[in-house]
Design goal:
Layout: E1 3-14, E2 19-21, E3 24-26, E4 29-39, E5 44-49, H1 54-57, H2 61-77, H3 85-95, H4 100-118, H5 122-125, H6 145-157
Antiparallel strand pairs: 1-4, 2-3, 4-5
Length: about 160
C-alpha cells in the first residue's frame, strides 16, 4: 500500500463562550484543518489539526495547510507506505522543525488507515481498551470568583465536570 494523495479541508469551529485562561483567551473560534490521506488501495485515513490559534501553539490554519501541502506531503508522504509511521515521523522531523499540529494531523490519518486496513478499531493498535467511558472535563477559566462558581455549578449539573 502506498500514499497517493492528500486532501486538506479548512474549517472554523465557533464556540458559544470564551474562557479566560492564564495564557490568554480561548474559545471565540478555532480555525482547524481536516486531513484526508488517500492510498492506492482505496483506503483513506482522516486526521485533524486543532490549533487554538498561533498564540497557543505557534501554528494557524494557514501554516498547518502550508506545511503539509508544501513540505510534508511532497517531500515525505507521497509514495510512502502508511504503516511506516516511525520512519515517516523521522523524515517529517528532518524536513520541518516543530509544527506539531500539522504532524499530529497526519499521524492520526496514518493510524486511521492502519485500523481500516487491518479491520480493527484504532484503540487496539494503540494499546487496548482501558475503559468503557471517557470522562470529559470542563474548564471555567479565571475571573471573578462568583462568576467562576456559577460556571462550575453549571458544568457539574450538565455532567461536564468529572471527579477523579
Amino acid at each position: 500500500m502506498k500514499i497517493v494523495g492528500i486532501e486538506l479541508i479548512p474549517y472554523t469551529r465557533v464556540f458559544k463562550a470564551t474562557i479566560e485562561e492564564s495564557f490568554g483567551t480561548v474559545g471565540a473560534k478555532e480555525d482547524n484543518v481536516i486531513v484526508r490521506i488517500y492510498t492506492d488501495e482505496g483506503i483513506n485515513g482522516i486526521g485533524e489539526g486543532c490549533t487554538l490559534g498561533p498564540f497557543y501553539c505557534g501554528e494557524s490554519q494557514e501554516t498547518v495547510m502550508g506545511i503539509i501541502a508544501g513540505y510534508l506531503y511532497p517531500k515525505v508522504l507521497e509514495g510512502e507506505d502508511p504503516f511506516n509511521i516511525d520512519p515517516i515521523h523521522y523524515k517529517m522531523n528532518k524536513v520541518v522543525y516543530a509544527n506539531t499540529v500539522a504532524k499530529a494531523a497526519l499521524d492520526y490519518a496514518l493510524y486511521d488507515i492502519m485500523g481500516k486496513s487491518l479491520g480493527v478499531p484504532l484503540y487496539k493498535l494503540l494499546g487496548g481498551k482501558f475503559c468503557d467511558k471517557i470522562p470529559v472535563r470542563a474548564s471555567v477559566g479565571i475571573g471573578d470568583p462568583d462568576e467562576m462558581a456559577k460556571k462550575a455549578a453549571h458544568c457539574a449539573v450538565s455532567g461536564r465536570l468529572v471527579k477523579w
